[in-house]
Specification:
The structure holds two protein chains of two kinds.
Chain A (H helix, E strand, L loop, with lengths): L1 H11 L2 H38 L5 E5 L9 H10 L3 E6 L1 E9 L2 E10 L3 H4 L4 E4 L4 H5 L4 E5 H8 L8 E4 L2 E9 L5 H5 L3 E6 H7 L9 E6 L5 H15 L7 E5 H44 L1 H9 L4 H37 L11 H28 L2 H5 L4
Parallel strand pairs in A: 4-9, 6-8
Antiparallel strand pairs in A: 1-10, 1-11, 2-10, 3-4, 3-7, 5-8, 6-9, 7-8
Chain B lengths: L1 E12 L2 E13 L4 E5 L6 H8 L7 E6 L2 E2 L5 H11 E4 L11 H11 L4 H14 L15 H13 L5 E5 L7 H16 L3 E6 L2 H4 L4 E6 L2 E5 L2
Parallel strand pairs in B: 3-8, 3-9, 6-7, 7-8
Antiparallel strand pairs in B: 1-2, 1-4, 4-5, 9-10
Helix pairs in contact in B: 3-4, 3-5, 4-5, 5-6
Classes of the chains: A alpha+beta, B alpha/beta.
Chain lengths: ~400, ~220
């Protein structure tokens, strides 16, 4: 207790110097906490974004159909025969110009079946989605998302309106919630969904052979089980050629994200740790100056009975305390900066907050730095001979 | 109490060997007030360092209360200083950041005395030097005489076997010097053993017994 008080007082005796010394630690902690918190918060947001795309999404790309291309009917029979797969939808997209009255807009037309709504986690806000009959009859119907409806037609409540894509008229049957994803942020075209069979007719680039499809597992089955079952079907279909197709699941993307995130955390963390070490060297420097300045005081203390250990502990506490004060200030400033960043980015789906474990690590790290870099100066003080120290500077 | 037997201390300055103490013999009995007088460079400081356990002799034997002080580690010497010796220095040597009270308290903290006991003894010691109303003052707010009285209180507070005063009046005017010497005499009357080191004959005469030191050799001057 007494030692703490003494350390506080000698730090307080030279506030300017203490503040400047702490600056190194403050900046180090700031860098560590803010950078790692930013990386973690960003990857958290992206990961949750990815999993909201459909946490149980399987994507199949067919690269080589071995002369027996997949057809819509095949997909339906797969669902019926495999309990693990609940939904399956082909996927193809094509760019097109949408026209409503005098309005024109670039569209990304996506050809799907009714299952796509569920697989992709979309929510209907108006009307209905594409159904089996639409696909079977290659109906000229389309589903828009809210943004597209507003941009092209002018209002969301647009069921029954007619939009023409490449000159062919499509009736709007439903409106889904606008996608608030990072992908949609970068794309400038509007989105419309039409039956896969209709897209085949409309677009020359899309054939009846399905090359991309999405699938989702049934309730009670994991993504891995569905993936396994889908793989069997595909192997069966494509002469046991594993290279004919590729299945990827969102989990893989999530795993990759986590790997990237932890790699970034380690990278940025070690850069910040280096600046903390530099701060620690600053502390050592100032402690050495302090020890020299207080040589006489050390002599007095030793003359009246302070042991080697007492002096060592006194200066160690001072060094550690300097570090911990710098650490506390650094954490406070980090918190303030993250608050400001959160306010600035309030409109985005990103949220930034202080990461508890980073704070804990920086506290531990600062403590260790204080100990390590305080040890040499403190030992130098403790080793002084009382007579030499007493006679120092008169 | 104190017994120096043929104590020698040799310093090397460059190639030259300086004999700061040359087979010095001294016996100080309990409750004695002894002055050691000598000009500067006579070996006074070396004598004081050895008596005060700040340094050890190269040759000869030093007994403090019958305990031989030799080949002790730094920490053991610190312990002996802490329990047996109270220092009063020429330049007061108070710690500037601490108040009078805290300066006096410091040796007790190093002895790990409990807080209540500490405060009691600190106030006793300050009372004995007549500074109980200056307890909270910083050294810089005190006059030289008052600072030296705080230093004496700090030397007293551990109830040491020996009070070692090294030119305690060297930085003070004659009036305050008399005051400080008065306090030392009073402490002697109360039963403390005091060794006073000085270069001033008038001050040395305050003691019952005077020892002369010159070129590291001690000679008794009967008083």
């Amino acid at each position: 207790m007494m030692a703490l008080k003494m350390a506080l007082r000698s730090i307080g005796a030279n506030k300017m110097r203490a503040g400047l010394t702490m600056l190194g630690i403050i900046i180090g902690v700031l860098a560590l906490v803010v950078l790692v918190s930013l990386v973690n918060s960003t990857t958290d947001s992206i990961t949750s974004e990815v999993s909201s795309l459909g946490s149980s999404l399987l994507t199949v790309l067919v690269k080589d159909d071995h002369g027996s291309p997949l057809k819509l009917d095949n997909l339906q029979s797969w669902i019926d025969e495999n309990p693990a797969i609940a939904a399956i939808s082909p996927y193809a997209s094509s760019n097109s110009t949408g026209k409503y009255g005098q309005e024109n807009a670039g569209f990304s037309l996506t050809g799907v079946t009714g299952d796509y709504l569920e697989i992709n986690g979309q929510k209907l806000v108006q009307g209905r989605y594409i159904n089996l009959a639409d696909v079977r009859n290659s109906s000229r119907v389309c589903v828009l998302d809210e943004t597209s409806a507003k941009d092209l037609i002018g209002f969301v409540d647009c069921i029954g309106e007619e939009v023409s894509f490449d000159g062919v008229k499509y009736k709007v049957i439903g409106v889904i919630e606008a996608e608030d994803s990072i992908a949609s942020f970068f794309s400038s075209s509007l989105n419309a969904y039409i039956p896969y069979s209709s897209l085949v007719r409309l677009s020359t680039s899309t054939g009846t052979a399905i090359t991309t499809l999405y699938a989702g597992p049934a309730d009670g089955y994991t993504v891995a089980q569905a993936e396994e079952s889908l793989k069997e079907l595909l192997l069966d279909r494509f002469d046991d050629d594993e290279d004919a197709f590729r299945i990827s699941s969102v989990n893989i993307i999530e795993e990759a994200m986590n790997k990237v995130s932890s790699a970034l955390t380690v990278l940025l963390g070690s850069i910040a740790a280096i600046s903390l070490i530099v701060g620690g060297i600053g502390i050592m420097n100032i402690m050495l100056v302090t020890v020299t300045e207080r040589t006489r005081e050390i002599g007095i203390r030793k003359a009246i009975g302070a042991s080697h250990r007492t002096i060592l502990v006194q200066f160690l506490i001072e060094a550690v305390m300097l570090c911990m004060m710098g650490c506390a200030l650094g954490i406070f400033f980090s918190w303030a900066i993250l608050q400001i960043v959160s306010i600035i980015t309030i409109d985005t789906s990103l949220s930034f907050h202080l990461q508890g474990n980073v704070v804990l690590w920086s506290v531990i790290f600062c403590f260790v730095i204080g100990l390590v870099f305080g040890l040499y100066p403190a030992n130098k003080a403790a080793k002084m001979k009382p007579i030499d120290a007493l006679h120092y500077g008169g | 109490m104190i017994e120096l037997r043929d104590v020698s201390k040799i310093y090397k300055i460059g190639e030259e060997r300086v004999r700061a103490l040359d087979h010095a013999n001294l016996h100080v009995y309990p409750h004695e007030f002894v002055s050691v007088i000598g000009p500067s460079g006579s070996g006074k400081s070396t004598l004081m360092n050895i008596i005060g356990c700040l340094d050890t002799a190269d040759d000869g034997q030093y007994l403090l209360e019958g305990t031989p002080i030799e080949d002790y580690t730094e920490n053991e010497l610190a312990q002996i200083r802490s329990r047996k010796i109270g220092f009063v220095f020429q330049s007061f040597n108070l710690i500037p950041k601490l108040s009078a009270e805290e300066n006096v308290e410091l040796p007790l903290i190093y002895q790990k005395v409990r807080k209540n006991e500490r405060m009691k003894r600190v106030h006793e010691a300050l009372e004995r030097v007549g500074l109980e109303n200056r307890a909270k003052h910083q050294p810089t707010e005190l006059s030289g005489g008052q600072q030296q009285r705080v230093a004496i209180a700090r030397a007293l507070v551990t109830r040491p076997s020996l009070i070692l005063a090294d030119e305690p009046t060297g930085n003070l005017d004659s009036h305050t010097s008399r005051e400080i010497l008065g306090i030392l005499r009073e402490l002697h009357n109360q039963g403390n053993t005091i060794v006073l080191i000085t270069h001033d004959n008038d001050i040395a005469r305050q003691a019952k017994r005077i020892v002369h030191i010159l070129d590291g050799k001690l000679t008794e001057v009967t008083g």
